[in-house]
Design brief:
The chain is mainly beta. The protein has four domains: 8-99; 202-257, no CATH class; 261-309, no CATH class; 316-478, Jelly Rolls (Sandwich). The protein is 3% helix and 36% strand. Strands 20, 22, 23, 26, 31 and 34 form a six-stranded antiparallel sheet that branches. A hairpin with a 4-residue loop joins strand 28 (405-412) and strand 29. 26% of the residues are buried.
């Protein structure tokens, strides 16, 4: 802070000089001078105020000269002011100020808001390579990772250099469709009449939509094509109801219809549902004539997908085409093709071509060595849905009589085996043909409605004749007189 004073003693001397000169009445030069100095110092530094007054009077003229010299000195600045007055109307003031303290943009140091030495912030922008916070700190206007960087001429938003369009073509990246060009090299694809053409693809990856089980997409002359692949390999033809499709010349096909025959019956057909590929049974119209499985020979028609025989349906039927139903076979018992020998028949009874029977040593003689009963035992037979339960079967039996050979049929009543047929003494049994036999099982049905049956034979005495023994076919458990064939 600078303050200026004009001390009262100085003014007094100056006035006194003027008065004496006026009173002398002499033309000689009268001179009065006075000098006073006052110094004031404040808290900002040291301030010196020097005031010098000089008055000179002559007989012919009077010249007043006042000079004020004020110098203020603090830690950072020096100010000198000089005022000079000559005569009552002439004055000249010269003020010189110099600031030598605080941060500046040319002190060779990074200070203030500068981002690098004497640049950035409120100073002038920095050159490439110097530190920055933002593009405004840089001469290039580009601040990258805290350092000023030159602007890429291919990314400056201006068409310059050898570019054919803004920031593309020439030595820059290729131009897209619709942008200007000078040659094909300026474009992703081709340059036509100074404009880059539209293209479907540039590389094979652009044609991935054409990749299938049987094709591979490729880019040819900027257009996508599907090349055949996976020849004879498996593929998905999109048909949920086909199986085994293969690729042929880029096309998937040749699949066979899905096999749903497991759902076929007398009144339904197994078909594939194209919506989900699942097998479903499609029913035949009601009242369509049919042949009921295990039907008892009455009038059979389809009803809601089931074949209903008005003569009834058997709970169990065994033609002995094989042993898929699980019969238990003791010694000498067999299930197989009928064979001539030792009194055995050469054909079965069932009117089919399987020729299957159950018997003792098929095509041969039973042993004559003493032994206990050897039996053929049925699987468990559920008769819970049957009001009238009978068993029928066809037989061809050739046997010696008791006590040499004894034959029997038994049913399990839930507690014991109960005999429903047996052979006794003379005469022996010798069926000349297949013969039907029926037995009422109603008295023997156990509480769980599950029955078992068995056919047995033994050798009870030495000296038995050679005989073929049992041949059994077409066993039925159902209503009386039911014959499902």
């Amino acid at each position: 802070m600078m303050r200026m004073k004009l001390h009262s003693s100085t003014l007094g001397v100056f006035l006194m000089g003027l008065s004496l000169a006026a009173c002398s009445g002499d033309d000689t030069i009268a001179t009065a001078s006075a000098t006073d100095t006052d110094t004031d110092t404040d808290t900002d530094g040291t301030t010196t105020l020097a005031t010098t007054g000089t008055s000179t009077t002559t007989g012919t003229s009077t010249t007043d000269a006042t000079t004020i010299d004020t110098t203020t000195t603090d830690a950072t600045s020096t100010t000198t002011t000089t005022t000079e007055s000559t005569g009552p109307e002439t004055s000249t003031t010269d003020v010189t100020a110099t600031d030598t303290g605080g941060p500046s943009c040319d002190d060779a140091e990074q200070n203030g808001d500068e981002t690098d030495v004497d640049c950035g912030g409120s100073c002038s922008p920095c050159a490439d390579g110097q530190m920055c916070l933002d593009g405004v700190d840089c001469q290039s206007g580009s601040c990258v990772d805290g350092a000023c960087a030159p602007i890429d001429p291919c990314a400056n938003g201006v068409m310059d250099g050898d570019e054919s369009d803004v920031d593309c073509g020439g030595s820059c990246m290729v131009c897209n469709a619709g942008q200007m060009c000078n040659a094909d090299d300026d474009c992703v694809a081709k340059c036509l009449d100074g404009v880059c053409e539209m293209t479907e693809c540039v590389e094979d990856a652009d044609c991935a939509d054409l990749n299938t089980d049987c094709t591979v997409g490729a880019c040819l002359d900027f257009a996508c094509v599907a090349n055949a692949a996976n020849e004879d390999g498996p593929c998905d033809d999109g048909d949920l109801c086909s199986e085994g499709a293969v690729c042929t010349g880029g096309v998937c096909g040749g699949g066979a219809p899905k096999d749903c025959s497991a759902l076929d019956s007398a009144c339904s057909a197994g078909l594939c549902n194209p919506e989900d590929g699942e097998c479903v049974a499609e029913n035949a119209p009601n009242d369509t004539p049919c042949t009921a499985e295990y039907g008892c020979g009455g009038n059979a028609v389809c009803t809601d997908g089931a074949c209903v025989d008005d003569g009834g349906v058997a709970s169990f039927y065994e033609p002995f085409a094989d042993n898929s139903q699980g019969w238990a076979l003791d010694m000498e018992w067999e299930i197989g093709a009928a064979a001539v020998g030792c009194g055995d028949p050469g054909t079965d009874h069932t009117p089919t071509d399987d020729n299957g029977v159950a018997g003792v040593v098929l095509g041969g003689c039973a042993t004559t060595q003493l032994h206990d009963y050897y039996c053929l035992t049925s699987p468990k037979i559920d008769v819970s849905g049957q009001a009238d339960v009978w068993m029928s079967f066809w037989r061809d039996l050739y046997s010696d009589y008791t006590p040499y050979m004894k034959n029997k049929i038994e049913v399990w009543d839930g507690n014991d085996w109960v005999i429903i047929f047996e052979t006794f003494g003379f005469p022996a049994v010798n069926d000349s043909n297949w013969t039907l036999f029926e037995y009422d099982l109603n008295p023997y049905v156990p509480a769980d409605n599950t029955i078992l049956l068995r056919w047995c034979h033994n050798i009870g005495s030495g000296g038995a004749f050679n005989r073929g023994s049992w041949n059994v076919d077409d066993v039925v458990v159902g209503p009386q007189t039911c014959q499902p064939f």
